[in-house]
Write the structure tokens for this entry.
Amino acid sequence: MELKKTNKDVESLQKFIVENNNLDGFYGDGTEIIDVPEIKIKHDFSDQVYLREMTIQKGQFVIGAIHNHKHIWFLIKGKITVNDNGEIIDHIAPCYMVSEPGSQRIIYAHEHSIFVNIHK
């Protein structure tokens, strides 16, 4: 299944994914950091900077929590489609984006991908 460009808002898409969370490849509920064995998460801290690295396998959907602070994220490896508050964008590594407070992403991995958030 692929994330298609539609007029569905993030809440509708999130509800669909959460309702189908029992299916392989659908992870997260949009309220907390994902903590499942299928999505590898690595946390690092240095000098008041927090780094979270997430490894997403091809075909997986991930719903992220709402971010409270402005931060930067990087796609280190792979290809993903991101629905960020209703805006759908394809990203191919290497790339980065600035994420504003209140943002919430739904990510679909077209291939094995490594996604990194950096928070101060």
